[in-house]
Amino acid sequence: MSEIPQGFEFDVIIVGGGHAGCEAALASSRLGARTLLTSLNLENIATMPCNPAIGGPAKSNLVREVDAIGGEMGLAADATYLQMKMLNRSKGPAVRALRAQSDKKEYMKYMRNVLEKQENLFLKQCSAVDLIVRDNKICGVIDELGHKYLAGAVVLTTGTSLSGKIFIGLQSFPAGRLGEMPAIGLSGALEREGITVKKLKTGTPARVDSRTVDYSKTTIQPGDEELNFFSFEPDRPIREQIPCYLTRTTRQTHEIILANLDRSPLYSGLIQGIGPRYCPSIEDKVVRFSERESHHIFIEPEGRDTYETYIQGFSTSLPADVQLKMLRSLPGLENVWIVKPAYAVEYDYVPAVQLSHSLMTKQIEGLFCAGQINGTSGYEEAAAQGLIAGINAARLVERKSMITLSRSSSYIGTLIDDLVTKDIEEPYRMLTSRSEYRLVLRQDNADERLTPLGYRIGLISKERWARFKDKQRTIKKEITRLHKTRVSPDEEINGTLARYNEEIKMNYSLAELIKRPGLNYEAVKKIDKTAQNADFPREIREQVEVQLKYSGYIERQNAQIDQAGKLEKIKIPEDIDYQGIIQLSQESRDRLSKIRPVNLAQASRIGGVNPADISILLVILESKRRMLVRTSDYNKMS
User: Fold this and answer.
1) In angstroms, rounded to a whole number, what is the distance separating the alpha carbons of residues 311 and 212?
2) Considering only CA atoms, which of 417, 407, 416, 619 is closest in space to residue 611?
3) What is the Cα–Cα distance from 486 to 524, expressed in whole angstroms?
4) In whole angstroms, what is the distance from residue 12 CA to residue 123 CA?
5) Which of 40, 111, 164, 405 has CB atoms 3.0–4.6 Å from 347's, for a disulfide?
6) Angle at 616 between CA 613 and CA 617, to 5 degrees
7) What is the rounded distance in angstroms from the CA atom of residue 233 to the CA atom of residue 255?
8) Which strands sit side by side in the sheet containing 137-143, from one edge to the other?
9) Which of 371, 306, 388 is nearest to 102 (CA)?
10) Residues 6+ positions from 585 with CB-CB distance below 8 Å
11) CB contact at 8 A, 237 and 389
């Protein structure tokens, strides 16, 4: 146990115990900062209020990047999975995605245990209702009992609790999640300090008793036989997997929904916040995609020791009696019993254009925001932001430079850049298509890209660093060997290649053969007669194959990254007066003044700022640079 703080003084305070809060608290305390994690209810630390699942397209990249830097989510998901499944397995490596259905209670227990055992970390059940700010610097928070907690950095990770309000039909009541009170007071404190606060909306489906589901009328969805894991750490646990099931909406389902739209708070205008485009309610799906006869609905377990079951794809805010009719119109759910009703929640968030890439607010030094408070949706997005905010909060109090990730380095960098550069008006979800560099930002090479950073800042142990370096040496050595090892056409080799509809008529290196569409590392291994060809772990075989097979595409994307890096290097002075640059359109001046990009690359990604504006800025910045050089030369001469 760390030394108990005198009074209520800490280095860093984390407000909120969701996925962002957990990663922020662990990162901060592991970096040596005396850290306080506050939560409205400590029993709900790291809860999964929506689907108890981790990963999926683009999200699995985030989880593996969090793990590569030294975060905890990947380890927690590996330790508590009910089912592991690699999505898009038949497609290219840039879009393959690991997804785990997690045991909700086990995940929470695992994370709570890690938090409690962490040195420098203290937990407190309370509600932060106000901020202590002096001279535009954060000094701490005040709880509902009037107690003051002082710190040089504060990270807000309030999720959907900030002035949260739940809607079930036309009924509503204050709550951040069903059965939990909202966080009241912080919104007003933020606005008092000049920070804009707006509203968003999200929702979750009903939970049902699995004993009332007839699974014979559904389609089983088993996990993978060959397991993959999120963490790059070795010896991940092998657990018995539990299947999920698939059903579909029917014409009756759609008729029930359409007949009751007047009882929906979304369509009646009671909810003002905008919901997530990529995770719409079932009534939204039926209205927006009226040409579709049915929609997929997945029935997914919430844990090994509970009958409570999640109905994925059936989010709604319609009244409870309508929900029951809707659910009972689905094949296999004709006699279903609802354990918890579906609901929508409207909550306050802080538009992230008010933050820098470090996730610190521009208005208040030392105040960071991470997770849904920044307008995102998803546990993985929250964890990624929490990790970066926690690292930077700890570094701030130690007077170290902030850590920022570029779009070309990671999905985390892409996520944060999108948030702080674009005016997000709906809950943001990470998608593969959001990254222009997705071929080099694959989930399989997250450690290669980010583990050096994690080691440099102090979140990766020496033992893990040694394993990482050994893995990278092995990959490079094997690629070199495959380039040097050549085979000649003979009856035996072509007989083996014929199984893959391939043959050779001249000498080829094994590396050249792996690049062929019909061949892979395992196929080429069958004609590799080199004695020292070791039986490498799957992760090394996969890395070797991907780096060889897609080398041409990777080289082209790296060239694009180098080109974009030139704009990244052209910094924009913090005090530049955009309104005084009359050559720019008024829209561009307004947007640039609002977001205040740090370099030309970020400026080029702001909506409404066109290439001509970037050219104008480039000319002006170059003129200023030359003027400074001439002034400096003159001063030296005189």
Assistant:
1) 13
2) 619
3) 11
4) 12
5) 164
6) 90
7) 50
8) 128-134, 137-143, 148-150
9) 306
10) 613
11) no
The residues, ordered by sequence, that sit 6+ positions from 4 with a Cβ below 8 Å of its Cβ are 122
Burial call 532-557: b when 16+ CB within 10 Å, e when fewer: eeeebeebbbbbbbbbbbbeeebeeb
How does residue 630 score in pLDDT terms, banded at 50, 70 and 90?
A: low
Query: Three-class SS of residue 361?
Result: strand
The token pair at 570 is 């052209």
Measured in whole angstroms, the distance separating CA 128 from the mean position of its chain's CA atoms is: 25
Phi and psi, residue 428, nearest 5°: -85, 135
The amino acid that residue 17 corresponds to is: G
Model pLDDT for residues 276-312, shown as the tens digit of each residue: 776 788 998 999 888 999 999 999 999 999 999 999 9
Is 140 within 8 Å of 397 (Cβ atoms)?
Answer: no
C-alpha torsion angle, residues 316, 322, 325, 327 (rounded to 10): 10
**Domains and their CATH numbers in the chain:** 12-49+107-201+347-430 (3.50.50.60), 207-345 (2.40.30.260), 469-557 (1.10.10.1800), 569-637 (1.10.150.570)
Residues 6+ apart with CB under 8 A from 367: 131, 133, 138, 153, 154, 156, 360, 361
- Give the pair of three-digit tokens for residue 164: 């949260």
State residue 130 phi and psi, 5-degree precision. Answer: -155, 160
Using CA atoms, how far apart are residues 424 and 375, in angstroms rounded to an integer?
Answer: 7
The span from the CA of 38 to the CA of 189, in Å, is 17
Q: Say which amino acid occupies 380.
A: E
3-state secondary structure (DSSP) of residue 497: helix
Q: State the Rg of the chain over Cα.
A: 27
Beta strands in 57-182 (DSSP E): 81-87, 97-102, 121-125, 128-134, 137-143, 148-150, 153-156, 165-168, 171-174
Tens digits of residue pLDDT in 582-618: 888 888 888 898 889 998 889 888 887 887 888 888 8
Long-range contacts of residues 456-464, Cβ cutoff 8 Å, at least 24 apart: 457/31, 457/391, 457/395, 457/403, 458/30, 458/31, 458/32, 459/27, 459/30, 459/31, 459/69, 459/70, 459/71, 459/391, 460/69, 460/70, 464/233
Q: For 576-637, what is the HEC assignment?
A: CCHHHCCCCCHHHHHHHHHHCCCEHHHHHCCCCCCHHHHHHHHHHHHHHHHHHHHHHHHHHH
Q: Can you tell me whether residue 473 is helix, strand or coil?
A: helix
Question: Which pTM was predicted?
Answer: 0.92
Any bridge partners for residue 149, and if so which? 141
- Tell me which long-range contacts 216-220 makes (C-beta under 8 A, separation of at least 24): 216/332, 217/247, 217/331, 217/332, 218/245, 218/246, 218/247, 218/299, 218/331, 218/332, 219/245, 219/246, 219/247, 220/244, 220/245, 220/246
Strand order in the sheet with 308-312: 219-221, 244-248, 296-301, 308-312, 207-209, 338-340
Show Cβ contacts of residue 512 under 8 Å, excluding neighbours closer than 6 positions.
Answer: none
CB 332 within 8 A of CB 326: no
Per the document, the length of the chain is 638
Distance of CA 620 to the CA centre of its chain: 37
Taking the CA atoms of 37, 39, 42 and 43 in sequence, report the sign of the dihedral they define.
negative
Distance CA 67, CA 450 (A): 9
| Strand partners for 150 | 9, 140
Could you report the per-residue pLDDT of 117-139, keeping only the tens digit for each? Answer: 999 999 999 999 999 999 999 99
Take residue 589 and report the two structure tokens written for it.
């001046």
